[in-house]
TrEMBL record:
The keyword Glycoprotein does not apply. Residues 1-121 form the Fido domain. It comes from Marilutibacter spongiae. This is Fic family protein. Keywords: ATP-binding, Nucleotide-binding.
Length: 233
């Protein structure tokens, strides 16, 4: 964990848009997260558990680098702990596609007005994402790609990490996929080809070859964002 205080939005802490928690508090904050994930609340939906976890992790910012990836992974794990990995994935995709808007507008408002505006936006995105995924073969594509990635992984955690790469980035190197899954280059290339082929004939088809995989699933998220973004105005 980081050993210094950090902030964002300005050159000095006094002018910063947001000052993250002091490094001395990080151990306690991360321990609190672990306790919640070990016994998540049962009186709210898994999506809300995951979405709140995502905001918490993003605002704790415990590392010098990789905080976004860590927050999304914890978000997926929160959804799984609450009984629905799919809702965790949806909340993680929301964090990725709205990252700029969340940091610049939504979270500062939430600090003043509470979580309701943030959760309303997250819920609207979840509804739009479900709508987009229901069309044509998209739901099948999502399920097949998720199964293929998890089936190739060394562990559920590795599978979730690789799946998040595909879901929350518009382009990933095959080498990244290989390293995340711990598989051979040949297996990673075969998996990349399988992912590409799944997008053929869908509204999210891609035309790309070479060392990178353009994620058609990212296009799904962008479409869902386009349907939701008006709620920020």
């Amino acid at each position: 964990m980081r050993q210094e205080n950090v902030f964002t939005g300005a050159a000095t802490a006094s002018q910063a848009r947001h000052v993250y928690p002091p490094y001395e508090a990080l151990t306690e904050l991360v321990d609190d997260l672990g306790r919640v994930l070990a016994s998540p609340p049962t009186d709210v939906s898994p999506f809300v558990v995951a979405a709140v976890t995502g905001m918490y992790c993003s605002c704790v910012h415990p590392f010098i680098d990789g905080n976004g990836r860590w927050a999304r992974l914890m978000t997926v794990q929160a959804g799984a702990a609450a009984g629905s990995p799919g809702e965790g994935v949806a909340a993680a995709v929301f964090l990725a596609t709205f990252s700029a808007e969340l940091a610049g507008q939504v979270w500062p408002d939430a600090f003043m007005a509470g979580l309701d505006p943030y959760l309303r936006l997250a819920g609207a995105f979840r509804t739009s994402l479900s709508s987009v995924l229901e069309c044509d073969r998209s739901k099948h594509v999502f399920s097949h790609v998720a199964r293929a990635i998890r089936g190739a992984s060394r562990s559920p955690r590795d599978g979730d990490r690789a799946l998040l790469c595909v879901l929350t980035q518009n382009c990933i190197e095959v080498a990244t996929l290989r390293n995340a899954l711990g598989v051979s280059e040949r297996r990673a290339n075969a998996l990349a080809d399988e992912i590409r082929s799944e997008f053929v004939g869908t509204p999210f088809s891609i035309a790309n070859d070479g060392p990178a995989v353009m994620s058609g699933l990212w296009n799904v998220a962008v479409q869902a964002k386009d349907q939701t973004i008006g709620r920020l105005t």
